[in-house]
Amino acid sequence: MTGSDSAHDRTRWVVLVMAALGFAVNFWAWALLSPLGPLYREELGLTSFQQALLVAVPVIVGSVGRVAAGVLTDRFGGRIMFPAVSAATIVPVLYLGFSGQYSLTGLLVGGFFLGIGGSAFAVGVPTVNAWFPPERRGTALGLFGIGMGGTAFSALTTVPLVTAAGKTAPVIVPAIVLAVYAVASYLLIREAPGRTKPTGSAAHRLLAAAKLPITWQASGIYALSFGGYVAMSVYLPTYLKTSYELTQADAANRMAGFVVLAVIARPLGGWLSDRVAPARVLNTTLVAVVAAAVVQAFTPMLMPMGTAAFLVLAVALGAGSGATFALVAIMAPADQVGSVTGIVGAAGGLGGFVPPLIMGALYGSYGSYGGGLALLAVAAAATVLVVRSLSRRPQVV
Fold first, then answer.
1. pTM, whole model, 2 decimals?
2. Distance in angstroms (rounded) separating the CA atoms of residues 240 and 83
3. Which of 50, 94, 96, 124 maximizes the CB count within 10 A of its CB?
4. CA geometry: angle at 258 spanning 251 and 382, to 5°?
5. Percent of the chain residues past pLDDT 90, beyond the cut
């Protein structure tokens, strides 16, 4: 390896690490309302649906924001977009800590703008993708996906910070970290050599991406895999507290365990996709989701059956998320990865927005979450058909 090759290799890993950190830090902020949901419910007298809406709003805004973030990243690159998204996320974080937390309206407004942090995902995928050759992109994007563990960090630290230092502490700390990261990312992230800036307007590029079959195939898969992960991570504390009468701290810790396992499984899904093809990985993970969701629909005892079902869900959804972007890395044109990622990422976020609302509504009406988990099993089975539609493409099977 020559000196220039060695420097190139070091830079690509620096970019990967910084992108993963940016993903994690912004997701930490994005997920702040989830572990605090039960607390706000008690303090403000929220209904099950209102609490579900509260934790879902940042998800929907972050999802829609990914479309714009992906298009802008194709144009301006990650060195500009990561600092911009991180700096913008500081504003709603501080608003929630010092003003917005005292009413449902304030929480919803803060949660709306907190969604900006959720768009960081669409910045990282094209940034990392451009630095790695096709045969290594599944692994690289899987490692980048470890950043979704920011939601676990949020779950582990938010409630203890409230207990130790009051309700403003969980927002001051991430705000400071976001500011430090914004500066560091501008100094350390570099654009890949030879990166081609797309031509034409943002609307034209978005339309071109929307015409690609892989955009919608991957969107359907990611809506189930990552959407299922997001839905579980934001709603699991409420589910466990309601269904199994766990304390808020215990429920938040178990949610963090779910997230950590999914985070570990995501690079595994990317790595396996580089070796045995994305569609095979996706078929296996989707079948596992069906089985685990069917078991949990009957609300078994938490130990051991319920815990086992959630562990299987965590691994399957995490690995499936990693395999999905291994698929995008292979099938999407290089200069459209950001635009395709934005649409696919939005679909994943939307997939996480709807289930908490359904779960809250079903529990409010029937006193059970079983119907919602049964719908997850049906959706996973239908997604298998989407994966099968890729079977005639040898590079993905």
1. 0.77
2. 36
3. 124
4. 115
5. 31
